[in-house]
Each structure stands twice: as C-alpha cells, then as structure tokens.
Amino acid sequence: MSEAIHxxxxxxxxxxxxxxxxxxAFFTYCxxxxxxxxxxxxxxxxxxxxxxxxxxxxxxxxPLELSQLxxxxxxxxxxxxxxxxxxxxxxxxxxxxxxxGKLYLYFGPLPVFLFYLPSKLFLGYYLSDYVAIFxxxxxxxxxxxxxxxxxxxxxxxxxxxxxxMLAGLSLGLANNAPFLCTxxxxxxxxxxxxxxxxxxxxxxLYRIFHDxxxxxxxxxxxxxxxxxxxGRPHFALLSFILIPSLWIYLCKYTDKSQLLVRxxxxxxxxxxxxxxxxLYNTMRFDSIFEFGHNYELxxxxxxxxxxxxxxxxxxxxxxxxxxxxxxxxxNSFPYVFFPxxxxxxxxxxxxxxxxxxxFKISPLLMFLFFLPFVIKFYSRHESIFYRPLLHFIKFFVxxxxxxxxxxxxxxxxxxRYLSDFSTFLVELTIISFWxxxxxxxxxxxxxxxxxxVFLCLLSIYIGMILGVYYIFQWYYFVGYxxxxxxxxxxxxxxxxxxxxxxxxxxxxxxxxARII
Length: 516
Fold this sequence. Notes:
Elements: H1 2-29, E1 37-38, H2 43-52, H3 64-67, H4 75-78, H5 89-92, E2 97-99, E3 102-104, H6 110-123, E4 126-127, H7 129-155, H8 161-173, H9 177-182, H10 186-210, H11 215-229, H12 236-253, H13 256-285, H14 311-324, E5 328-329, E6 336-337, E7 344-347, E8 350-353, H15 358-361, H16 371-381, H17 387-409, H18 422-439, H19 442-477, H20 483-505, H21 511-515
Antiparallel strand pairs: 1-4, 2-3, 5-6, 7-8
C-alpha cells in the first residue's frame, strides 16, 4: 500500500515536470528562428573553437580597419566594417570585446564547458543556443522543484500532492522562463547556465542545514556557487558573502573537531573556481576583475546597456521597472497586452528595454510579504525542529536579496535580467505561504488557500501568455502577418495547458474540494 502511494505521488511529480518541460520546449521551438543545430558558428561557438585551438580569444583576427578607427568601440563607427568573407562585424561578432588586436567574448565560459564543448566533441557539430537554454532552464527547474519537494516532505507532510503540483507549476511557469526560452542568444544562454548552477547550489545549501553539514554537500554547494559566477560574473558577490556567513554558522553550530575539514570543504571549490576566473581575466584583459565589458564593440553606441552602478539614484526607478511596470488590459482574448519588447527607452543617456513588473506577472508574490513575520513567529514559538529550515530561508533571502540589489543598481533595465532572481522569489513565496498555516487562524488560512490557488493559476496563465506573445511579436517584427493563425495557435496552446492545470486541481481530492 505504501509503495503504491509513493508511486502515485512520484507520477504526479513527473507529470508536473513533464508539463513544465514540454512548455519550455514549445516556447523554445517556436522562438525566433529556432533550430536544433548551428552549422554556422556564433559567439559561444567561436569561444569553443578558440579553446580547442589553445586560445582564449576567438580563432580569427578582427578586420584591420577596426584598429584604424578613432574609437573602435563606437558602434556607429564600426558598423560597416566587414570581414574578408564579406560578413559585417556587427553581424558576425555582435557585442564581442576587442582588446589588443583580438576578439573575446565578455560573457563567462560556463556554457562552453557545460554544453558547447561536449556537443562539439561528441556530436561533431554545435547544438543551437535554443537547445542550451532549454537544457539549462529545465535542469534549474528540476533542482528547484526537488528542493520544494524535500521541504514539503520534511516540514509540511500533510499537504496534498495537488498543492505540491500547483506549487511546482507556478515555480516553472510563473516566472521569466517562458520569455527567456523564446529569445535564444548568448545573453540568454549565460543567464540560463548561471541559473542552473545557482539552483543546484541552493539545493545543496538546504542539504547542508538539513543533513547537518555533510562534507559532500559543502563541496557541491561551493562548487556550484563558484561555477555560477563563471556564467554571470556578478554572482561572485554571492561567494564573497555567503561563504563567510556560512563559516560563522559552522563555528556556532558544528563540532569544533570537524570545523577545519568542513571549512575547507566549503571554501576550497569556490576559491579554486574564483582563482581560475581571475587568471582567465588576467590572461585576456590584464586585470583580475575585467571580464571584457569595458571593451565591448557596441559600448559607445548610445544604445548600450553598459554597466554603470548608481545605487543611490537608480534603485527606485529600476524597482519600478522590474516589479511594478504594468501591462495593458484589453477586452478580448488573451485579455492582457505586453509592451513592445524591441522598444528602447532613453533616460539620461542610458538605454532601458521594455519591461513588465514581476508583481504584475506573478501576483502570487503578495504572499512573500508574510515571510519576515512568519520567520519571527517560528523563531519565537516553534520547536528546534524548524531551526534548519529557518536558517536555510535566511540564507536563501540573503542570496536573492544580493542579486536583486545588484540588478536594481545597474542603469539600463533589461527584461531578461529578471531571470536572475524571478524563480527564487516564487520559491520563497511558496514557502512563505506554507509557513502561514501556523501563523494565522485556521479559517483565515483556508481563505488564504483559495486566494493562493487563484493567484497561482493567474500567474501561470500570464507567464505562458508572456512567452507566446513574444513569439508572435517576433513574427510581426520581421514582417510576416499570421494574425489569424497566431490567434488559433495561441488559443489552442493556452487553453490546453490551462485546461490540464485546472483539470488536475478540480478533482474530488483537490484543494478546493477540501476548502469549500
């Protein structure tokens, strides 16, 4: 009987993973110019070819005319420069870095080692950026969902499988992943690869607290955290803050005889990855902190999202862009209308791409505001049983907060940057809602359950529409007119996935049946 119950529960979790991954596959497949393999190389392919030939730069030299320009980094000056094969510079190596006569990729090398190099060695050709994004986002989601299941089984075993399924679907679709799937370029590949490694680091961080500081968990956490910085350089801030904080935690809660061994296991992998990145930067740009962004070939175009940290004057404006900027409501299906994602807004000589506030896309985030209150409540009134979860949540909040503050400090909002933290905010929100059960009265919690279910469904619906909308906006942008076909495809996909989700919920054992 017990095995049958576990099998039934496992099948429901597999169903959630299937629905999320098939949605990612749909968005990726329908994305702008999506294809399986790349027989014409692109930026990450050039970097892979460089590594295979023993170089850190691209395996070819830039056109000689580039060095003769007054300002080779001005996009308006280098726009018409051509390679000997006739291809324009801005088409072949868009956003590459130029330093001392060589071309580099200013994005970290993580996707090369995880995806492009293995695909080249084993298949003989490169799989496309779309496949890379699908793979990284799918693996990241699986880690996040596995973490959610582990927390539920340990601290909330009374929750039904259907509540977990709803939470899992929200975790996979009520974020920025559908949007990211449709826009496959090396920007999105870097973001997705770092998300994957940070999701894995978060999973092992939970195991550190739950399983009492096992050496293997400390090693895997440190390794994954360090590798995330080789995909998104600003994730290095997490290592600088989280690892010393965990050292303090180890000193307070672990056996003194094991402190040194556990401290080495926690520090050494991240230190090794960090040393590699500093050496990598030094050999390319003669600076341990330079990834090449300051030598970007489009840096002085007037439309660049060149990084400028302005924490005092920029936080409120970017908070509005990333969390509060609204979409438009319309009176026909799909009832929401997103801004033009190709639109560029110029504010104070900086470019701001169109964004939609995350609170508007995922209204279930309203339950996140309960988090500080429930943490305070559990810290005061609950037993030592909840201590590992509370400590994990505090580190989880610290990690997410660091990422959010950094993104808000950069002048020049970009909607894809939301993927750095959107899934983690959704996961924190779900945990916050589960913790509310003992924080509020039973009748109030039942009312909250109804609201939570509704907001999850609404967030999933909006998240899916966001991805589909971008797909068809691309087709309109390049000049095709498939309006009627688009409407039918749009409706069929949205209705199908929405029907499957609600069908799983509206069964006699589901949440509404128990509440009402």
